[in-house]
Amino acid sequence: QVGVTAQKTMRLLPASGRRATQKVVVGDQDGVITCFGIKKGEAVPVFKTLPGQKIARLELGGALNTPQEKIFVATGSEVKGFTKRGKQFLSFETNLTDSIKAMHISGSDLFLCASYIYNHYCDCKDQHYYLSGDKINDVLCLPVERVNCITPVLACQDRVLRVLQGSDLLYEVEVSGPPTVLALNNGNGGDSGEEVVFGTSDGKVGLIQITGSSPVHKWEIGNEKKRGGILCIDSFDILGDGVKELLIGRDDGMLEVYNFESADDPVLLYDHALSESIVSIQGGCVGKDGYDEILACTYSGWLTGLTTETIHREGGSGEELKLSQEMQSKISSLRSELESLQIKVLQEREKYQQSSQSSTAVSSVPVFSVNDKFTLNKDDASYSLILEVQTAIDNVLVQSDVPIDLLDVDKNSAVVSFSSCDSEPNSNFVLATYRCQANTTRLELKVRSIEGQYGTLQAYVTPRIQPKTCQVHQYQIKPLSLHQRTHSIDRDRPMNTLMLKGQFSFAEIHSWVVFCLPEVPEKTPAGESVTFYFQNTFLGTQLESTYRKGEGLFKSDNISTISILKDVLSKEATKRKINLNISYDINEESVRYTLKLIHPKLEYQQLLAKKVHLIDALKELQVHEGNVDFLLPKYRSILEESDQLLEEYKKQPAHLERLYGMITDLFIDKFKFKGTNVKTKVPLLLEILDGCDQDGLIAFFEAA
């Protein structure tokens, strides 16, 4: 184990001889680079540097077409170079205002990215510069020796790969999720040298050929199993069949190996679950000559090797497996090491107790790092909050000042308890404590918010360390929290329009849009105007927002979306004493369209609720009568599927109430724009909703 590590900070150095094992080099957030080999299952250090600034990336480089054995690390705004023996030969201060987030090295070319800025250096001299429209997560360059030109590719948060030529954008490639990591296919760009594999934060992997004029999408693997986001990718022939497999590490600790049975279709061959997110993955020969391994590095700095060597020696019938001498001596040395560590801990604890009670005592708060991620899932319109701590978590307290539902997560073994809240004086709507089992370092929570209700969700994380200490992390729940960025929208839908005019700057209206909607870059976009498209993940309605200095235009097929925007934007403008001229154009047809979108969901949830209410009665009948052959087939099927039905109902608490709430809001908002208050008619609307008749519902909306 090393210190806490960032994404892509562990590599295998090339082997020196033909059959020699490879050395591992890893950089951690204490700024330490550790290089070691493995001999007889033990780590043998080669070199270790002194602590410094956090290491954000570690890459190998060297002259083109020679073994890549020089070690380069990015720390802060500096790039350092080390030989494989640990001698520093380069220290290059880039003078970037932001810390380096991504790095790629090819011969004497260095490609660096800070949050929004891309820089290309050749022999440490500035060559090209590009300002991206959204945050850059990763960078790579197609192999120069194969494509004969420098073609950098940036993975940007707004679901786009940007392909550059010099300092200019050559073209953009739209991908299905926010890309978090890039890798050259087969490690060399595939047959053409132009093939790039990308992984997204919502767990998809795809292959794109980056040609000189346009992209060619080759294949994509979806995320049917709802696994974590992709953090690292490598290509390595672990099967020894001459074809490189794809190695993938995810942020939920899943390690996957994909095999290419046919050129276009990767098939999952093997997976292995680790308890923490996998930040780096490599294939190579580390522990023993002739046996290939997959090496994974996790967030808290554990390096784990999975080998092709058969570990268990087969025992004869009834004969107990005898541990080899090597294994026995290893176990006894580990036992003695453990005992000496326990004694040391006791001594240090006593020392601390004495010093803390003395008159000159200074209490020190232990520092620990938390890796957190708060993202919207498109599939079930809920937010995932993932908290990962370098030591075991004791408990997490979740508090929210807006109404939210906490949903069940299968992988979550923590015990949850809810406390009653008084929402009136201090607007405290949710207070829940998750008590974790021993050795839990990663906790995943699911949250569903209500659009129009915005505020802050807070997580108080307390790890199992002494003295007790806690970190608070805050997450904004935005007014249109269930909207997600998309590349395009359906132009044929009936749309409502909201138009704003006033004495506001481009930066001011952009900051209001950032306040209202998720996935909008905080930096004001370049140019005079900008257009963003969104889709509501719960209902499937859409929103188009176009704005510039002094003018904003918002179009949506859902009146409620327009109503929320109108309220929030006018409130934000009032705060800054800006006078807004607001006009709107409401399309009556859009209400009918939105109701038709909601109705199938409503019908499904009502049917599910009815089935669940019948289960107990049907089970009682089954107990009394002995068999259920006399029941109608539809009731028999409810009994047979009772477990699945209950599971689904438990996973989606308050789903039906949410849909009722959305239809009620739609009803109130439709008439609010006409200047009519229809709150008294809401009970009548709820009666019609219970009847679940689409035509009756539309008629009520039009007649009211």
Helix percentage:
10-25%
Strand neighbour order, sheet with most strands: 37-39-40-41-38-42
Q: Main beta sheet: strand number and arrangement?
A: 6 strands, antiparallel
- Stretches with pLDDT under 50, minimum 5 residues: 313-321
As for the CATH topology of the largest domain, it is: Methylamine Dehydrogenase, Chain H
Our measurement of the CA-to-CA distance between the termini, rounded to an integer number of angstroms, reads 67 Å
CA radius of gyration: 29 Å
Strand content: 35-45%
| CATH 2nd-level architecture of the largest domain | 7 Propeller
Oligomer: single chain
Number of helices: 11
CATH class of the largest domain: Mainly Beta
Structural class: alpha+beta
Q: How would you summarize the topology of this molecule?
A:
Layout: E1 10-12, E2 24-27, E3 33-39, E4 42-48, E5 55-61, E6 70-75, E7 78-82, E8 88-93, E9 102-106, E10 109-113, E11 117-122, E12 125-131, E13 136-141, H1 144-147, E14 152-156, E15 160-165, E16 168-174, E17 179-184, E18 195-200, E19 205-210, E20 215-221, E21 230-236, E22 245-250, E23 254-262, E24 265-273, E25 278-288, E26 291-298, E27 303-307, H2 325-357, E28 370-377, E29 382-389, E30 393-400, E31 404-407, E32 415-418, H3 423-426, E33 430-435, E34 442-449, E35 455-463, E36 471-477, E37 483-486, E38 496-502, H4 506-516, E39 529-536, E40 542-548, E41 551-556, H5 559-575, E42 580-585, H6 588-625, H7 633-640, H8 642-651, H9 655-672, H10 682-691, H11 694-703
Antiparallel strand pairs: 1-2, 2-3, 3-4, 5-6, 6-7, 7-8, 9-10, 10-11, 11-12, 13-14, 14-15, 15-16, 17-18, 18-19, 19-20, 21-22, 22-23, 23-24, 25-26, 26-27, 28-29, 29-34, 30-33, 30-35, 31-34, 32-33, 35-36, 37-39, 38-41, 38-42, 39-40, 40-41
Organism: Tinamus guttatus (White-throated tinamou)
Keywords: Coiled coil
Protein name: Bardet-Biedl syndrome 7 protein
